Amino acid sequence: MKFDFKGITAEELSFKLNHVKLEPDTKLDIKPQFSRQVRKVNGNEKVNFIVLSVKIASTEAEPKPFDINVTLVGIFEVETANENEERSFVIEGTKLIYPYLRSAVTNLTANAYIAPLNLPVITGPIFPEDRDVYAFSVDNSNLN
Questions:
Q1: Is 2-18+32-131 in CATH node 3.10.420.10?
Q2: Residue 111 pLDDT
């Protein structure tokens, strides 16, 4: 499998301050929600887009000091031979876009003049459906 990262663009960057009154020593559970879509260009199967989003939304049950919605689109040229390579590309492409998403959230909150929100550094898969790709088996046949 071979893929070339062609660029990235922001599809949505939104921030809304919520006037939530919190008691002192209240611990907030931000709970960012991640989503991903993969799209291909009609007529050119080599051009792929990975759309990576994070959303933080306040609800009545779980108030948050702000709402954020960040969506970034990574543009890739991909040459895959089979479905396993396609899946590997999606995982690796997601890993490539995530630091940009993380930075956008930090900058968006900092530019709103609040304490910057730093999403965690993630070195493995973000989405549960990607985790089995990282599973591996040990070949013990050469140990004897």
A1: yes
A2: 96
At 134 the pLDDT is 55
- Distances from the Cα of 78 to the Cαs of 38, 44, 81, 86, 90, in angstroms? 12, 10, 10, 9, 10
Low-confidence residues of the chain: pLDDT under 70: 81, 133-144
Closest to 19 (Cα-Cα) out of 70, 63, 73: 63
Q: Which residues lie below 8 Å from residue 120, measured CB to CB, with a gap of 6+? A: none
pLDDT at 144: 35
DSSP state of 115: P
User: What are the residue ranges spanned by the domains of the chain?
Assistant: 2-18+32-131
- pTM (2 d.p.): 0.85
Find, among 102, 75, 57, 70, the residue nearest to 3 by Cα: 75
Radius of gyration in angstroms for the set of CA atoms belonging to the chain, rounded to a whole number: 19
Degrees, nearest 5: CA angle 131-101-49: 70
pLDDT of residue 138: 36
Phi-psi region of 88 (alpha: psi -120 to 50; beta: other; left: phi over 0): alpha
